[in-house]
Design goal:
Layout: H1 6-12, H2 16-24, H3 27-38, H4 42-51, E1 65-66, H5 77-95, E2 99-104, H6 131-146, E3 152-156, H7 161-170, E4 181-185, E5 188-190, E6 200-202, E7 205-206, E8 208-210, H8 215-222, H9 225-231, E9 236-241, H10 252-260, E10 265-271, E11 281-285, E12 288-292, H11 294-297, H12 299-303, E13 315-324, H13 325-333, E14 340-350, E15 356-366, E16 378-382, H14 385-388, H15 401-418, E17 429-431, H16 439-446, E18 457-459
Parallel strand pairs: 2-3, 2-9, 3-4, 10-16, 17-18
Antiparallel strand pairs: 1-11, 5-8, 6-7, 9-13, 10-13, 11-12, 14-15
Helix pairs in contact: 5-10, 15-16
Bound molecules: uridine 5'-triphosphate (UTP).
Uridine 5'-triphosphate (UTP) binds at residues 104-111, 118, 155, 186, 210-213, 215, 241-243, 365, 393.
């Protein structure tokens, strides 16, 4: 597109309201609006609108859905042996400098209503550490434990990139090497009304939205960091979301199972709490592993129970994955391969009279888990929700800071009690990742020690 053709193109897509606005702008502002819009793939946007985004993964009526094969939480001696072997394989991967970690933090965090990037939300129960600090400290502790580099990648969006980078700079990268914390930004897509109209955010910009967490696999490639990691000899990428303070970054057991299965893509799942929990479900779909959003899954399957009355499709998605980097390269080789989904939202929008008001819109996004059915080999592992999954989505109620803090306290109290120290019931406990990364680590550190038990406890 060039600027001379711009009016014709807007007309072609039925965007006369944008054209009217454009024609009223001063020449330099016209150029600004043109440059902004020319940065988007309008063909894609209007095609998606036309198809209303053929949602990837939605099972057709004839699809064969089965519970998937999942590595269980170890209970038997054989399970324990397998777990130990996986742990040792994962530890070797980390020690051999073959692992990097990615935190996707480009979302808008609308439900949490925090004014800054979600990773800057203070969450830890005693010290009020932010999500970013908890993750960075885990990486720092792993680097020390394994004498390994473990680059930490943070995916932002253009909306929160600068604030995120400034946050890390101000906090001196939480003790990590500056060169090993890599920021890259995902793409945005124009938000559109159900009637197919683009919307103005201000005089020279459209209303846009980040292109979904699936955009991470594209932006990793486009930013050049995928090649950078490969050049460093890294082969596996640990992936998690910014909103889960319980996540075990680069968990060696998980990495080990992934590596032993020679998987392209691996996933941690937890048992769904109840049939109404709004969580994606890991299933076998037409013989391939896949995750279906709860909204795509359909009430019948969502509510199905086995002969013992237990939830049949029990494996809830934690959004914790490991990706093999050669697989991520393949996904990008001939154009990015993930399908787009359409989310209906209500947003505040600028009206022609300069006021703002609520409007129903469609957002197009890709989901990272749509990579799973594209993988040749996958691996899925069950973990205990109480130990690894408590996302911060909402300001209050379920999946909120209150539930996440409660989960952190319960977990860390459990580690202390497992180390043989009994705690008065009211005491909050927070364990710095720099002190201990897991309960075995803690037990070693506390051996032969006594702790003051009168007040809330921070172990560092
Ligand atoms: P959610 O889908 O929960 O969205 O993202 P959100 O932005 O955190 O919150 P709401 O829906 O606006 O309230 C799950 C994870 O995926 C990341 C988020 O930052 C979060 O870590 N994400 C989501 C992205 O990185 N980019 C996106 O485009 C969407």
């Amino acid at each position: 597109m060039n600027q001379a053709d711009f009016p014709v193109i807007l007309q072609h897509y039925g965007q006369d309201h944008i054209l009217d606005h454009y024609s009223r702008l001063a020449v330099d502002r016209q150029k600004e609006l043109y440059d902004h819009i020319a940065g988007f793939d309008l063909d894609l946007v209007f095609e998606l609108h036309k198809d209303r985004a053929q949602a990837g993964g939605v099972p057709s009526l004839s699809a064969e859905i089965k519970p998937p094969l999942v590595i269980p939480i170890p209970r038997t001696p054989e399970d324990m042996d397998r777990h130990a072997a996986a742990k040792s394989a994962g530890e070797s991967l980390i020690s051999d400098n073959r692992v990097a970690a990615l935190i996707v933090a480009g979302g808008q965090g609308i439900r949490l209503r925090h004014d800054n990037p979600k990773g800057t939300f203070p969450i830890s129960p005693v010290k009020n550490k932010t999500l970013f600090q908890l993750f960075a400290e885990q990486v720092k502790a792993l680097r020390v434990r394994f004498s390994s580099r473990i680059p930490l990648l943070i995916m932002t969006s253009p909306e929160n990139h600068d604030d995120t980078v400034t946050f890390f700079t101000t906090h001196n990268y939480f003790g990590l090497e500056k060169g090993d914390v890599l920021f890259f930004s995902q793409d945005m897509l124009p938000t559109i009304t159900p009637a197919g109209e683009l919307l103005l955010k201000d005089e020279t910009h459209l209303l846009t939205n980040p292109d979904g967490h699936g955009g991470s696999l594209k932006a990793l490639y486009a930013s050049g960091f995928l090649q950078h990691l490969i050049d460093l000899g890294i082969s596996e990428l640990f992936y998690c979301q910014v909103d889960n303070p319980l996540v075990k970054i680069a968990d060696p057991v998980f990495l080990g199972y992934h590596a032993l299965a020679k998987a392209d893509c691996s996933t941690k799942v937890v048992r769904r709490e109840n049939i109404d929990e709004k969580v994606g479900v890991y299933v076998s779909l037409n013989g391939k592993d896949a995750i279906l959003e709860y909204s795509d899954f359909g009430g019948l399957h969502m509510r199905a129970v086995d002969e013992k009355g237990k939830i049949l499709y029990w494996a809830g998605n934690t959004a914790i994955h490991v990706f093999n980097l050669a697989f991520v390269s393949r996904l990008n080789d001939h154009g990015f391969a993930l399908p787009y989904h359409c989310a209906s939202k209500t947003v505040d929008n600028l009206r022609p009279d300069g006021t703002t008001g609520p409007l129903d819109v469609w957002k197009f996004e890709t989901f990272v888990f749509d990579a799973i059915p594209l993988a040749e080999r996958t691996c899925c592992m069950e973990v205990d929700r109480r130990e690894e999954f408590s996302p911060v989505k909402n300001k209050s109620g379920p999946d909120s800071p209150t539930t996440a803090r409660r989960a952190m306290i319960r977990l860390h109290r459990g580690w202390v009690e497992d180390a043989g120290i009994s705690l008065p019931s009211k005491i909050k406990v927070e364990i710095s990742p720099l002190f201990a990364l897991d309960k075995e680590d803690l037990a070693g550190k506390l051996k032969g020690k006594t702790l003051p038990l009168q007040k809330d406890m921070y172990l560092e």
